[in-house]
Specification:
heterodimer; A: mainly alpha; B: mainly alpha
Chain lengths: 484, 210
Amino acid sequence: MTTFALLVLPLLATLGAACSRSTRLNQRVTLLAGIAHLITSLYCLVTRSNPFPAQWWLAVDPLAAFFLTILSHTFVLVTLYSPGFLQRMEGPEYDRAKRIFYPALNFYLLANTLVLVVQQFALLWVVLELTTFGLVPLIYFYRTKESLEAVWKYLFLVSIGLVFLFVGILFLSLSARGVVGYSAFVVNRMTEAAPQLNPLWVKAAFVFVLVGLSAKIGLAPMHPGDIDATSNAPAPVAALMAGSLRSTAIAVLLRFYQVVAQTEVQPFAQRLLIFGGILSLAIAAIYLWRSRNYKRLLAYSSVEHVGIIALGVGIGGVALLGALLHLLFNSFGKAGLFFMAGNIHRTYGSREIEPITGLARRLPWSGFVWALAFFYIAGTPPFGIFFSELLLLKGMIHGANWLALALFLVLLMVIFIGLSRAVLRMLQTPGVLPQKSDESSERFNVSHALGLYAMAASVPLALFQPAALFDSLNAILASCGVKL
Amino acid sequence: MINVLTILFCLTLIYLAVTTRLSAYVLILVLQGTLVAGVHTLEFFRDFAWPHLAVAAGVLLVRTVLIPSYIAKIIRDLDMRHGDRTRRYRPGFLIQMAAVVIGAFVVSHELSTMAPVDIIPLGAAIAGMAAGGLLIVRRRLLLAHIVGFLIIENGLFLLGIGVRAEMPWIIELAGLLDLFVLVFLMGIAINHLKSHFPEGESDTLTGLRE
């Protein structure tokens, strides 16, 4: 039943949506697949059960269960938001894009699930490519010159990144020569054999893996393709990319890190991750000040958050726990932000910051959720990101990483000011355009409810720390060589 | 024999440096696909098994027939037979390519002192990957970028041989299928790009800057 909900149902939903011409039916089927996936993922997370036979190359371990939950939760939010979005896309120019939307969405769920449950490193590379295929038609939804350019750059950069990843996998296999056979090139066997691996090849493998995955994660300096794609994709797709695709790619990175953490190469890998994290924060800090497009602003905010996550993984200890929680809470907040960005784009017809004035008055609900979401991603209490960043700080202080701590705090401050400048300008600058009567009284709708729910949900999770979640997180930490 | 084929692979890289015609790029892809399939067949000849033959057949089909003919179709459909007119032949590219090939073999030799690798196939693999990257950097035509990516992929395939990595055959076939779909998607993107950017050059893709 678990296997059915995780893999067969998304596959059937993909095929069904591809064959069906009824948008309403496709919506229901996709929502059903998403909810079944979410329930199953939560079940696996809570019970820590693996539905696949032990000899298979597929398994749901705590890492997979945690990331599957993030994936399906974001997917359900996006599926609930999508009907309203598609309804607004009127005109024959969107007909084809609307027909492809649900099959591609379901394929995205299937491909990401496969990435999270596959344990064999080479097969992992094969299925990681599938996630790109599912995403391309979704990014190209508007069929404009800009979205086409974004698709091309994303496709090209991610493909080059995957070449690097494959070189990393080959080097990892080389490190295991004479220790682990190719048939056992799976995560748990490699982790057990890790102390016997050739450290030189492990080191080279990790460099290539990190660079290769950076394009997919959106980590600097491989972030440009991801920025273009996220900022030109429609709101639900951008939410999906920021909330779940990056998480999936980070899960793949953690799979390699699980092996590296058991070797003498771990300190080197940590330094590399800290460098990548700080570099991403610095890039985000610079471009958040320069960007004149609010969707690009959100995309750079994602670069900032993956930088924080990489930094947390690199610092290790309690900061790794902070990084995992940050992944979860970031996925919650990004959904709300991109949904509101979609509402703003619909009303103002622009992605530029300049023409967006009087947002708080013209779109009171969207403006309110937008402002709240800004405070959410800026790490303001009582939202979850505040607690995850606190754990990161604690980790840096415990590990005496003073330089990283200083850079982290300074860059966060620069980012906060840069982001607030744009967000507050959009909210509070008096409107210069005449208000249309039908837009003056915005009603509370599903997108606002979803945004508010996502942000509110992070508060009890961070405050009460449910045992089921934290037991799984502790198991992930243990697999990365961290004991709290 | 494997060494002979991989050296021939390096010679195709030199040819890559002296041509700007798109039809020549397609020919290079066909030649490289045949050489790579040949290397794969020979590598596993001693330990013959039907799955190895299936992979070799898959390589031959995808890399020498399907992908080159698809790229040739794009060239015909978009009337791009003129080649990369924006860049005339310059000897600098040839010098760079020669340096890449020599450098790759030096690196391969150094690596052989640290791990059991085959120097010539590994050198050819590194050269192929670097040459593909160089083509992407030096040529402005988007189609030339796809060719560069495919040359990197050919180098990657040789790298597996060079470091004697024996992947399960099902993964090799799945990887080939992935490659084909990827090139197919890139082809579709190029087709659409041509209507927005008639030059089909990377320089024109500047709409998404800060």
